[in-house]
Amino acid sequence: MSIRTQKVAKLIKEELSQIFLLKVEDNQTGLITISNVKLTPDLKIARIYYSAYEKQKRKALAEKLESKKIEIRKDLASKIKNMRFIPELEFYLDDTLDYVEEIEILLSKVRENDNKE
């Protein structure tokens, strides 16, 4: 990834964090964190990876993000003035924390078995 692409991705991540805080987060969606932003080399598509703290609210959050995608992109365009165009947004659930949780559970089971022996 080029330096320009990294800078733009960082800027998009920062601005989207603010937009999510004001327009997306509520009681139905719970806490949302943007974990990563990946841009295509031509800066036309931004893949936004987000994590949701509450597992049972993930489906509602995904639906809300899809329904507000155009509005979020417009808000992003109003905040980022020095770009010729604003990339299309694609949202993906980042389930890394789920894998971490599963590994921790497995490790605790291994520890319990070691303590019994």
Question: How would you sum up this structure, described in words?
Answer:
The protein is of the alpha+beta class and 117 residues long. The protein has a single domain, classed as K homology (KH) domain (GMP Synthetase, Chain A, domain 3, 2-Layer Sandwich). The protein is 55% helix and 19% strand. It is built from four helices and three strands; from the N terminus they run αββααβα. The protein has helices at residues 3-24, 58-67, 69-79, 96-116; strands at 32-39, 45-52, 88-93. The chain has a three-stranded mixed β-sheet with strand order 1-2-3, with helices on one face. A hairpin with a 5-residue loop joins strand 1 and strand 2 (45-52). Helix 1 (3-24) crosses helix 3 (69-79).
